[in-house]
Design goal:
This protein is an alpha/beta fold and about 270 residues long. The chain has a domain of about 180 residues: Vaccinia Virus protein VP39 (Rossmann fold), CATH 3.40.50.150. Helix content is about 45%, strand content about 25%. The protein has 10 helices and 7 strands. The chain has a 7-stranded mixed sheet with strand order 3-2-1-4-5-7-6. Helix 2 links the parallel strand 1 and strand 2. The radius of gyration is 19 Å and the shape is globular. This is Class I SAM-dependent methyltransferase. Keywords: Methyltransferase, Plasmid, Transferase. GO terms for molecular function: S-adenosylmethionine-dependent methyltransferase activity. InterPro entries: Methyltransf_11, SAM-dependent_MTases_sf.
């Protein structure tokens, strides 16, 4: 089962999203819970934002981290110096673990990029012991990410391709209020709760904001890279104008909200 996330370069991903997932990881861990001695699986580990935060937070027995992208697996493996952490390439919809192996299955900023989210949640439940926890978090693209909405609204104003991109971006799976909670309940988890987690994304200047997109990272980067030269120049200029908003280029800060959900395996 493929992922719909577009990644070329680990460093580009870090500038686009990895640095922000590092900020979100501690809030997600606090919501999900954690205890010494546990065995955890990090589903969709990316470059390791959650994986390495877990290792720092508790004296865990084992952290199994998987991702579909070879780029992410290679980068997380390169960074890893902790013998408790085992990283491998795998599919969130076909986890390579026996039933009931882990105390918790966690997925940070992953489920909205998995085509079959029901199957992914079912797999997370399968590999967690009875009484263990399944938890996930995804960005609220429609209403909780003004900095990213500024991007997609700008390209939507420029043409039909941008409007189609916005429709896909704003309504990816698991992003609507209560959607993850319903999925967790439908997959048999109990005592399911949902909340909102907020961080801020702070940019030094327009280049800090736009460079990873301009280099082709993420869904919007994929769209931008497919534009012709004239349309690309028009898009770059429109994005700069949106970012600067009539003021000189410089720092900007945006609040960003993620939906988080957790449930217990009966």
């Amino acid at each position: 089962m493929t992922s719909s996330f577009n990644v070329h370069d680990a460093a580009g991903y870090e500038q686009l999203m990895g640095r922000w997932s590092q900020r979100l990881a501690p809030l997600f861990i606090e919501f999900s819970g954690l205890a010494d001695g546990e065995k955890i699986v990090d589903v969709g580990c990316g470059t390791g934002s959650l994986t390495f935060a877990l290792a720092r937070t508790a004296d865990l027995a084992e952290i199994a981290a998987i991702d579909y992208s070879p780029v992410f697996v290679a980068e997380a493996s390169r960074r890893n110096t902790d013998p408790r952490i085992k990283i491998q390439q795998a599919d969130a919809c076909a986890l390579p673990f026996e039933d009931g192996t882990f105390d918790r299955a966690l997925a940070l900023l992953v489920l909205h990029f998995v085509p079959d989210t029901d199957k992914a949640v079912a797999e997370m439940r399968r590999v967690v012991r009875p009484g263990g926890i399944v938890a996930a978090a995804v960005w609220d693209h429609l209403g909780g990410m003004p900095g990213m909405r500024m991007m997609v609204d700008t390209v939507a104003a420029l043409g039909e391709g941008g409007r189609q991109l916005r429709a896909r971006y704003c309504f990816q799976p698991m992003m609507q209020p209560g959607e993850m909670k319903r999925t967790f309940v439908e997959q048999g988890l109990v005592d399911v709760s949902e909340t909102q987690l907020m961080i801020r994304m702070d940019y030094q200047n327009f280049d800090d904001y736009w460079a990873p997109i301009a280099a082709g990272e993420g869904p919007l980067g994929k769209y931008v890279m497919a534009l012709g030269a004239a349309e690309r120049a028009r898009t770059d200029a429109a994005m700069r104008d949106a970012y600067e908003a009539g003021r000189p280029d410089g720092p900007r800060s945006f609040a960003n909200v993620a939906w988080a959900c957790r449930g217990i395996v009966p």
